Amino acid sequence: MSAVVEFDADLPWQRARSVSLRPEPFGALVYSFSTRKLSFLKSKTLVTVVESLAEHPTAAATLTACGVTDAQRPAYVKALADLARSSMIERREAP
Amino acid sequence: MPETPADVETVDVPAPTAEDSLVEESLVEEVSIDGMCGVY
Amino acid sequence: MTTVERPMGGRLIDQFEYGLDAPICLTWELTYACNLACVHCLSSSGRRDPRELSTAEAERVIDELQRMQVFYVNVGGGEPTVRPDFWHLLDYAVCHDVGVKFSTNGVKLDKARAARLAATDYVDVQISLDGATAEVNDAVRGAGSFATATRALENLAEAGMKDFKVSVVVTRENAGQLDQFKALTDSYGAQLRITRLRPSGRGADVWDQLHPTQAQQRDLYQWLLANGDNVLTGDSFFHLSAFGEALPGLNLCGAGRVVCLIDPVGDVYACPFAIHENFLAGNVRDEGGFQRVWQASELFADLRSPQTGGACTKCAHFDACRGGCMAAKFFTGLPLDGPDPECVQGYGEMALAARDASTLMPKSHIDHSHTGPVRGQPTLLGLPAMPPAAAAPAPPTRICDESPLVGLDLG
Fold first, then answer.
1. Using an 8 Å Cβ cutoff, are B37 and C249 in contact?
2. Which of A9, C112, C133, C407 is most buried as measured by Cβ atoms within 10 A of its Cβ?
3. In chain B, whose CA is at the least distance from the CA of C237?
4. Residues of B with CB under 8 A from a CB of A
């Protein structure tokens, strides 16, 4: 059983390197070549967040930069936590 | 919808979208790569 | 490509009627040639088709799949490893970001190959087996096929290969062996995958005799609920969801929506169980290649539009089973907007009984079956197996022999 990765939004993250992200009109499909897991991202904004995680110092900063509103924030943090748990996103060496 | 102060650098505040209703449901759905019928 | 307003959010399956830009995964049969002659072969394989895609053409298909970001390809056949360029194409796919699972009867998986595979990431291997014992397996797949498969499993296990799969087609003869299958795969460190028998290809000829009974289907469903965590199904038993709790998976027909088949001559069908002109969408050799077929063919546009469930929509279980398998209905002569022949509520049996002499039983013209007996003939239909040691010397190989297996030593 793989180690559970706690999601801390105040740390730097990035799309996992073994992951292929395919934009679709409804969002994106994300496939991990190492875990063979497949995820369906249901919002274009979430896709932009995942793709730009590497450009921001923290996941939280990425959400802000992508225009995620306060009302939407908990859902996006949960989504990122889900993606971390399924190894679709990974911790980035700081900064 | 909060008003945008005129003297603050503005970010366009979008009108309520379908996304707002997604707050209630998960934005990520996990699917099995072997969970699609038609692959033997 | 569609520009229709599509809803945001919801379930993934809600998006299918609007189409995906590319399949999520697909089956690619590399050759119709095969060293075996399994009685239920869905692709009626055996003899190579002289119009097979060349190595260069196959590479162009892989290039397209890379561009379209198709994540995963199930490479099968026939027996894909009998193509001399198989290992090259495997490497080519891996180098071009296309994940590959290949389905094989194990004939070529010696220790060296197994070691090579164990060292290659992004490749999955699936060994076909239809009996937990040689007696049950070989009746359907041919004398010696159980030994060939288990030898391959041994080699893979010894080489340290991870996550390789054993794929079983559930029949009346092996439905009682599910626990034994699990024990067998556990013993090799392999993952068990069980799949549904369809009346497709040669399967049409043995379906009445081989498809599980209603009682066996119920047992199978219960077994999956109890043991399904570690068992794959390829979502092929979604029609059983009408028994109650849904089984894991998308639970609906993926043909032309999220999956499709590319056959050895480049024909694109809705799915591997529907190799018939009615389900032919185009050819990768056509202008625009595979992408144009996937995105613009009429057949796929039809399949992606809301399907009429017909009489089934009145059934309380329709939401669970969605009317079952299109190919199963088609090849048993049932209407596509009616019940699946194995409908767990029994409506399929009623529909089958209502067929009369005038009911059209579709037969595919695509048939590459061996015309004569092969070494290791299945015995299910009462045909005698050839003796393991040839009584007469094999005829010398000739330049014009169609079979790529002439002269092949399977020992």
1. yes
2. A9
3. B37
4. 11, 14, 19-20, 22-23, 26-33
What is the sign, positive or negative, of the torsion defined by CA atoms of C64, C365, C325, C128?
negative
> Locate tokens 């395919």: which residue?
A22
C-alpha span between C74 and C82 (Å, rounded): 16
Q: How many A/B residue pairs have CB atoms within 8 Å?
A: 55
Task: Give buried/exposed letters for C208-242 (b at 16+ CB in 10 A, else e).
Answer: eebbbeeebbeebbebbeeebeebbbbbbbbbbbb
Cα distances from A2 to residues C182, C190, C302, in angstroms, run 23, 19, 42
Question: Under DSSP, is residue A22 helix (H, G, I), strand (E, B) or coil?
Answer: strand
Q: Give per-residue pLDDT as tens, C250-286.
A: 888 899 999 999 999 999 999 999 999 999 999 999 9
- Across A51-73, average pLDDT: 97
CA distance C307 to C13: 13
pTM of the model: 0.87
Residues 106-165 of C with CB under 8 A from B: none
Q: C255: which strand partners? A: C259
Interface test with C, best of A2, A15, A18, A29 (most C CBs within 10 A): A29
Contacts of C88 (CB under 8 A, 6+ apart): C55
Q: Which chain B residues have a beta carbon less than 8 Å from that of A82?
A: 26, 28, 30
Query: Could you give the CA distance from residue A73 to residue A90 in angstroms, rounded to a whole number?
Result: 20
What is the sign of the dihedral through the CA atoms of C31, C64, C73 and C201?
A: negative
Please give the backbone phi and psi of residue A62, each rounded to the nearest 5 degrees, phi first: -65, -45
Judging contacts by C-beta atoms under 8 Å, the chain C residues touching residue B38 are: 27, 253-255, 258-261, 270-273
